[in-house]
Amino acid sequence: MQVIGFCRFSYPAEGGFQVEHPTIEDRIAYLYSQDRMEERFRHFEGICLPSLLNQTDPDFTFVILIGDQLPDAYRDRLERLVAGLKDVRIVARPPLPHRKVCQQVLNEARADIKAPCMQFRHDDDDAIALDFVATLKQAALDCQALTQTHGLVGFDWNRGYVARPDAKGICAEEVVHPYWGVAQAVAVQGKVRRSIMNFGHQKLNQFMPTVTFTDRPMYVRGHNDHNDSRQGKHVKPVTLPQLSPDQEQDFRDLFAIDADAIRRLFA
Fold it and tell me: Which of 109, 138, 152, 154 could be stapled to 204 by a disulfide with Cβ–Cβ 3.0 to 4.6 Å?
């Protein structure tokens, strides 16, 4: 079964943001501002990419949706960073309705629309466990009777970490947070054209049967000042404890996130 990961990298969609902008031009200016883009690249390089590059099962497709107005310097930088992935596709689109364009891009990435696939969503500042793809494939096999009966079936690993990287290293704590949108996937039957991105990640279980797993940490949810969910006026600051040297080693073992590399990136 084909596994497809999907990441929006500062794509200026129509909708899909908790932060509203008066015009699409305002949204593009916000997304592509230098300070924000530099932070996104630091998180992408230090948090997101290591776990993708070091998957125990590298047999997956990873699709990155960007805007067709992303400056060339940023696109070139992105292409260099992801060059080590086995099957990575950077897809540029103009600003379009969020769910529609995500569905189109995901369906275009399917090797055979008539065949089933597994799709997982992934933000550019999040990480997954190094055996996430392998675990996802095994879960699909274990739940074959369910996936063959329903057009869409959700899979959600709800134990992980919320983490904030900075010049001192990584501040993080373990959490259990169902349907958070990271380490989350949907089994899509052949000929079904709806995708994981057609549904809000927190409401997945309202539209399909879902299977949840809580046995071990499977993700790192990035926490930073430019998170879309942190732009509201009433958002409270979150204090996270600094990882100890032993916990930093756990992050290397579980997610290939290197605290020394984080310190260099955020110095």
Answer: 154
Give the span between the Cα atoms of 103 and 120, in whole angstroms: 13
Cα–Cα distance for residue pair 185/110, rounded to 1 Å: 15
Per-residue pLDDT reduced to its tens digit, 110-169: 999 999 999 999 999 999 999 999 999 999 999 999 999 999 999 999 999 999 999 999
Total residue count of the chain as it appears in this document: 267
Closest CA to 239 of 160, 142, 173: 173
pLDDT of residue 34: 96
Name the pTM for this structure. 0.93
Q: What angle do CA 110, 149, 114 make, to 5 degrees?
A: 25
CB count, 10 Å around CB of 35? 9
Q: What values do phi and psi take at 101, rounded to 5? A: -70, -40
Distance CA 240, CA 250 (A): 17
- Residue 211, beta-bridge partner list: 155
Give the pLDDT band of residue 226 (cuts 50, 70, 90): low
On whether the CB atoms of residues 151 and 189 are closer than 8 A, the answer is: yes
Nearest to 104 by CA among 73, 65, 49: 65
Q: Which amino acid is at 255?
A: F
Beta carbons of 161 and 260 less than 8 angstroms apart: no
Q: Which residues make beta-bridge pairs with 231?
A: none
Amino acid identity, residue 38? E
238 contacts 162 by C-beta, under 8 angstroms: yes
